[in-house]
Every structure is written in C-alpha cells, then in structure tokens.
C-alpha cells in the first residue's frame, strides 16, 4: 500500500497536482471552520491562521515521508556550523532581505500607480500589538516559527519543488514555478487587502528566485523573511505611539 502511494506521488502527475491543491483545501477549510469560533477576537483569529500553517507543515512532512525523501531535499539541513559559516549566512540573509524589501516597495508603487490605492497593506489584524510589548514578543516568536519558517518551507520548498517535479525543470520552467509560487503566496495574504497581495507576491518572487539561486539554502530565506516580519510587527506596535 505504501509503495503504491509512493509510486503514485512520484510518477502520477494528476496525483501531484491533487497534492498541491489539497494542501490549500485543508488549510482554508480549517480557517473557514474555526475562524467564526474566534468571534471578534483578532488574537484568536491569528492563532487559527497559525494552526492552519502548522497543518500545512504536517501535510508537507507526510508527503516527504511517503516519498522516502529527506528533509535536505527542501534545503532543511545544517552544514558544518562554524562562526564563519553563521556570519556568512547572516550576511547573505541581509542581502536577500534588502532585495525582498525592494520588491515589496516596487510592488506597492506599481499597485498605487495603477489603482490609486494607498501604499500600505491592511494590517488591522495585528492591531492588538499596539503599545503591547508582551504581545509583540509573543507574536514575533510565533511568527518566526510558523510564518517565517513555515511559509518558506511551504511556498518555496514545497510548492517550487513539486512544480519542478511536474515537469517545470528547465530554466524557463523553474522561473514559471517561482512565479506561480509567488502568485499563490500573494493570494494567501488576502487579509492584507489588494495592496498586501501585490506586495507579498513581489516579495515571494524574490524569495523564490534566491531559493533556487542559493541552491535551496532555505535557512537564509527563513532569516530574511523573519527580518521582514519583524519590521512589519514593530511598525504596527509603534503605529499608535
């Protein structure tokens, strides 16, 4: 039974497509069911989204295990940990972060010029952070684990690799995989409004590019993503001061 499932996941394109679709059906189904239970409490709503991301990570892990793949396939590995290597990783992650911020800003400028929408995302779901240092710290910890790490594994590691397995393994195909993953990444941030969708979409394209350019060194992207989330969260925290 397990061998048959493994064979289907590796060789059957329809099963692969189904795997890509099912992960979002599960996540959005979970959000649809449990968000109403959170009522008007935006903290509880955020927790629901975090748990949806955790479900997606479990789903990704199951797919890896069923294929007998290793976590290194997505770049989830540690090389030789030395002070020099840590410094190099942080330095590269800062460069990726700067590129991602530039893409984020370019996306907002393009969107604003086309539609006239103000150059800001709708971050009202994070209003609970305003003047609340304890919630800021808790949210940042959760964000690094669930969003920065989780989203890089899901939208760069999982989606890009599975799309490449579907036949997008040429240079053009890989670029298309990056674009598709970026579009999906933008759309799942629909709660940030139209501007947020475009901003995160552009950001996702840059992160996807560096994911393949840096030979799947996903920890660099996790750090860069974390820096971005940290700035956004601190921005909300200070917005009412």
Automatic annotation (TrEMBL):
InterPro entries: Rce1/LyrA-like_dom. Keywords: Membrane, Transmembrane, Transmembrane helix. The chain crosses the membrane at residues 14-35, 47-66, 87-112, 132-151, 172-190, 219-238. Residues 135-230 form the CAAX prenyl protease 2/Lysostaphin resistance protein A-like domain. GO terms for molecular function: endopeptidase activity. Pfam families: Rce1-like. One of its GO terms (biological process) is CAAX-box protein maturation. This is CAAX prenyl protease 2/Lysostaphin resistance protein A-like domain-containing protein. It comes from Tenacibaculum caenipelagi. The lineage of its organism: Bacteria, Pseudomonadati, Bacteroidota, Flavobacteriia, Flavobacteriales.
């Amino acid at each position: 039974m397990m061998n048959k499932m493994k064979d289907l996941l590796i060789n059957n394109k329809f099963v692969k497509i189904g795997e890509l679709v099912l992960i979002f059906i599960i996540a959005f189904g979970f959000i649809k069911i449990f968000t109403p239970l959170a009522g008007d409490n935006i903290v509880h709503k955020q927790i629901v989204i975090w748990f949806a991301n955790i479900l997606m990570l479990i789903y990704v892990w199951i797919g890896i295990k069923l294929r007998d793949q290793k976590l290194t396939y997505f770049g989830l590995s540690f090389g030789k940990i030395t002070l020099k290597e840590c410094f190099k990783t942080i330095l590269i992650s800062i460069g990726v972060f700067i590129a991602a911020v530039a893409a984020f800003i370019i996306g907002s400028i393009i969107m604003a010029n086309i539609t006239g929408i103000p150059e800001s995302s709708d971050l009202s779901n994070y209003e609970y952070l305003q003047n609340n240092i304890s919630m800021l710290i808790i949210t940042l910890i959760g964000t690094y684990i669930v969003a920065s790490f989780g989203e890089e594994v899901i939208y760069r590691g999982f989606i890009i690799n599975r799309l490449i397995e579907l036949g997008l393994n040429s240079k053009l195909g890989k670029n298309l995989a990056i674009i598709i993953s970026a579009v999906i990444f933008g759309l799942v941030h629909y709660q940030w409004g139209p501007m947020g969708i475009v901003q995160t979409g552009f950001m996702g394209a840059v992160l996807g590019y560096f994911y393949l350019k840096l030979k799947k060194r996903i920890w660099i992207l996790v750090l860069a993503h974390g820096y971005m989330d940290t700035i956004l969260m601190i921005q909300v925290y200070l917005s009412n001061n």
